[in-house]
Amino acid sequence: MPIFEYHCLKCQGDFEKIVFNAKAEVECPRCQSKKVDKKISAFSFKSGSKFVPASNSGGCGSCSSHHCSTCH
Fold first, then answer.
1. Where are the domains of the chain?
2. What region does 67 belong to: left with phi over 0, alpha with psi -120 to 50, or beta?
3. Diameter of the chain by CA atoms?
4. When you count CB atoms within 10 A of the terminal residue's CB, does the N or C end of the chain come out lower?
């Protein structure tokens, strides 16, 4: 299920929302404002051909390498 992160421009709150249609209007659950920006998740980024982890754990959970391309 596609869960997106948003930032409300009115109350400055951050929230997550399941969105099935890219054209769906999203409103803030706190203030009901429709003036929201979709945040870009660090989890979805790639840098060249190397995996960029979302956390700062430095490496994979199953190995000690700091470069996931060596174990994935």
1. 1-39, 46-72
2. beta
3. 47
4. N
Task: Give the integer Cα–Cα distance in Å for 43 and 41.
Answer: 5
DSSP, residue by residue, 12-54: --EEEEE-SSTT-----TTT--S-EEEPPPGGG-EETTEE--S
User: How many other C-beta atoms lie within 10 A of the C-beta of residue 65?
Assistant: 13
- Length, in residues, of the chain: 72
Phi/psi of residue 25, each to 5°?
-80, 135
What contacts 45, CB < 8 A, 6 or more positions away?
52
In which residue are the tokens 């930032």 written?
A: 7
Structure confidence by residue, pLDDT tens digits, 32-70 = 999 999 998 665 555 555 554 554 444 455 555 555 555
